[in-house]
Amino acid sequence: MSTTAAAPRDPQTTAPPQAGAGAPRTSSLGHYLAPDTGQEREVLRIQRPNGSALVVDYELGTLSDGRLVAHLAPDEPAENAQVVCDLYLADGERRGRCRAVAPEDFDATRHVTPSQSIGDGPTVVSRLQDVAGHVYRISELPLAGASLGDSRRELRWTRSLLPGRDDACDAVTLRDVVGSLEAYEPARTLTHDAIARFGRCVSTRRLREELERLAESSIVLNRGLREAVQRELRLGVVTRSEIALRCDRVRRESAGGCSGDTSWLARRIGEMPEGGEEKPCPWIQTDVLALIARDGLGISPREVEL
């Protein structure tokens, strides 16, 4: 677990109302030791009168130095509090950046959105990591194109600028994430869940559009096809040249003969970069995938679709 300086202690930080009529119900979600002080801290779920809930980080036993981790809408499943807590405990880099709990947080007449409750750090929904170590997560960012002073926020996928670190990141598309990981899941499901969970609190329009475009696109991942080709080659069933010839991709030899265009095949299945590119492309047109699968390998295209 990485360590980071925690927010300064404030003995006057608001604690939840004490037991009595109208007092909120609380439940413990987890514990940890503050890396700078060694003080044991506890993350609590605090039920608000309107059915929503707060996730708050307090010093264990004293309920001082309260830090607001998240505000959960009334229609969110109760188990989401545990999901938020688990992400929070695993994310030491941002744990000290939550703002202090305020009295109005317990006021049922005041609506608090996730962007207000997290403070100056983006709201973490999930995180994935590619083979190079870059971290991908759905975060709450300022609305793209908004004018100065516009406080509107939106959910976006982000990619860390440096491998193994996520303190600085760029916004990317869902398609960028899927292409980098060469897998539709879990990014696709995480996107769908984020839209369902946070759609009432922050803009999810861009994520919705990216999810729809991914589902409707005729360009798909080629990893399944590449693995099928490599499997047939290992078994000695066919050669690269034979696969290309079956797809009518012919290369004329200077001596008058011909062979299959193996470089065409390698580019289509993501083994070789396209001209002028540094890395192989993880995508392929569905009609080309079907051609190579059906004519080149003699299998159904469905067998190589991810």
List strands and helices in order, with pairings:
Layout: E1 26-33, E2 40-47, E3 53-59, E4 67-72, H1 80-90, H2 114-118, E5 127-129, E6 135-142, E7 153-160, E8 169-172, H3 174-181, H4 187-198, H5 205-216, E9 219-221, H6 223-235, H7 240-246, E10 250-252, E11 258-260, H8 262-268, E12 283-285, H9 286-297
Antiparallel strand pairs: 1-2, 2-3, 3-4, 5-6, 6-7, 7-8, 9-12, 10-11
Helix pairs in contact: 6-9, 7-9
Tell me about this structure:
This protein is an alpha+beta fold. Helices cover 28% and strands 21% of the residues. The protein contains nine helices and twelve strands. The strands form four sheets. It has a four-stranded antiparallel β-sheet with strand order 1-2-3-4. The protein has a four-stranded antiparallel β-sheet with strand order 5-6-7-8, covered by helices on one side. Helix 7 crosses helix 9. The relative contact order is 0.08.
Mean pLDDT: 80
Class by helix and strand content? alpha+beta
Helix content: 25-40%
From the alpha carbons, calculate the radius of gyration and give it in angstroms.
Answer: 26 Å
Distance between the termini: 34 Å
Task: List the strand order in the largest sheet.
Answer: 1-2-3-4
Q: Helix and strand succession?
A: EEEEHHEEEEHHHEHHEEHEH
Sequence stretches where pLDDT stays below 50 over 5 or more residues: 1-13, 109-124
Strand tally: 12
Oligomeric state of the chains in view: single chain
